[in-house]
């Protein structure tokens, strides 16, 4: 048996997934709504009943079944409330007290974690007197104080101001770097998956659709969801291969473009949104299972082409600007 996490979990109708993670690694779990991300986390924690097995640090949590309270899991869950009647320090100390740690020691250890997360001076405050970012830091301290072997983060930055989330991201990255347990982080944010994680697991319909390093998953998405997250156009061919290209390499023209070395599609403009200095044009081409292609054009070109929703256009991309992978003979 080796360390880290080994899990195979089956929750009928909701999840059928196998997962391995090295000690100290951070795994981002991404996928569309309803893909099974929360089910995966709750099944690992033992909150949701699952068939299969879970092994952490060489110890089975499923044979015999280890109860929810005995699993060494730290939770930071979306919308999870702190106990309103307890101070920040007592909130953090709670899990230690429940494990029989004496009051004074629990308070000291809680204070040390609050200090580490930069909210030590707020230890006596109740949650209603904390900002969203401060409360999330207390929640993270509460998850880490019991020294879990599995840290489960479900959208840890959602609902926070951009600036607050950015600061917390840096803080959390620092803690994760020195944490030797396994972290699983559910996120809808491509940047979090790319910057905080060592591995990315893509769930779709309760199954693992793809996994790999963040760089590999971002460069070679195999699901529409990931393609959209990382801002790539990805088309699937009949042989199971994929063709990916960047929106900035797509040319929009009023008539069919010349040149045989271009892939081209006729379509209609489905939407226009600002994207950095460019205009991101969504074109419904019926090219790939109802997925719109994305093209980035300059505002001047957009005006010149008279782009507006419903306009008929051609989109094309040089074959040399595309990358194919995944199918037979491709890589
Ligand atoms: N308590 C439940 N009982 C039965 N089915 C459920 C329950 N909770 C979720 N499901 C179903 O299980 C599937 C996976 O849901 P889950 O909440 O794990 O997805 P998710 O990837 O976390 O989605 P989101 O991004 O929307 O949070 C969905 O089809 C959902 O409808």
UniProtKB/TrEMBL annotation:
The keyword Nucleotidyltransferase does not apply. PROSITE patterns: ABC_TRANSPORTER_1, ABC_TRANSPORTER_2, MOP. Residues 5-230 form the ABC transporter domain. Residues 258-326 form the Mop domain. SUPFAM superfamilies: MOP-like, P-loop containing nucleoside triphosphate hydrolases. The keyword RNA-binding does not apply. Gene3D superfamilies: 2.40.50.100, P-loop containing nucleotide triphosphate hydrolases (3.40.50.300). InterPro entries: AAA+_ATPase, ABC_SmlMolc_Importer, ABC_transporter-like_ATP-bd, ABC_transporter-like_CS, Mo/tungstate-bd_C_term_dom, Mop_domain, P-loop_NTPase, Transp-assoc_OB_typ1. This is ABC transporter ATP-binding protein. It comes from the Bacteria. Keywords: ATP-binding, Molybdenum, Nucleotide-binding, Transport. One of its GO terms (molecular function) is ATP binding.
């Amino acid at each position: 048996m080796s360390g880290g996490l080994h899990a195979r979990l089956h929750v009928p109708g909701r999840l059928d997934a196998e997962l391995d993670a090295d000690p100290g690694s951070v795994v981002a779990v991404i996928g569309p709504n309803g893909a099974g991300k929360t089910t995966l986390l709750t099944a690992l924690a033992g909150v949701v009943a699952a068939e299969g097995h879970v092994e952490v640090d060489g110890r089975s949590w499923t044979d015999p079944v280890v109860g929810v309270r005995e699993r060494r899991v730290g939770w930071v869950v979306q919308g999870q409330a702190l106990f309103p009647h307890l101070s920040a320090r007592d909130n953090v100390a709670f899990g230690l007290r429940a494990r029989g740690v004496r009051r004074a020691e629990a308070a000291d250890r809680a204070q040390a974690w609050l200090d580490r997360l930069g909210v030590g001076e707020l230890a006596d405050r109740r949650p209603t007197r904390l900002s969203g970012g401060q409360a999330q830091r207390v929640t993270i301290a509460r998850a880490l104080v019991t020294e879990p072997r599995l840290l489960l983060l479900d959208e840890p930055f959602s609902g926070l101001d951009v600036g607050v989330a950015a600061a917390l991201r840096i803080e959390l990255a620092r803690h994760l770097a020195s944490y030797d347990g396994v972290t699983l982080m559910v996120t809808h944010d491509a940047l979090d998956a790319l910057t905080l994680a060592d591995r990315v697991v893509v769930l779709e319909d309760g199954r693992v659709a793809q996994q790999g390093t963040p760089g590999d998953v971002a460069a070679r998405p195999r699901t529409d969801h990931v393609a959209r997250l990382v801002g790539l156009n990805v088309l699937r061919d009949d042989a199971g291969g994929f063709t990916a290209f960047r929106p900035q390499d797509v040319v929009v023209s009023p008539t069919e473009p010349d040149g045989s070395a271009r892939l081209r599609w006729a379509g209609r403009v489905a939407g226009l949104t600002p994207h950095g200095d460019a205009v991101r044009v969504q074109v419904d081409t019926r090219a790939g299972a109802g997925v719109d292609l994305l093209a980035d054009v300059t505002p001047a070109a957009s005006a010149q082409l008279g782009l507006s929703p419903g306009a008929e256009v051609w989109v094309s991309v040089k074959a040399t600007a595309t990358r194919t992978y995944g199918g037979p003979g491709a890589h």
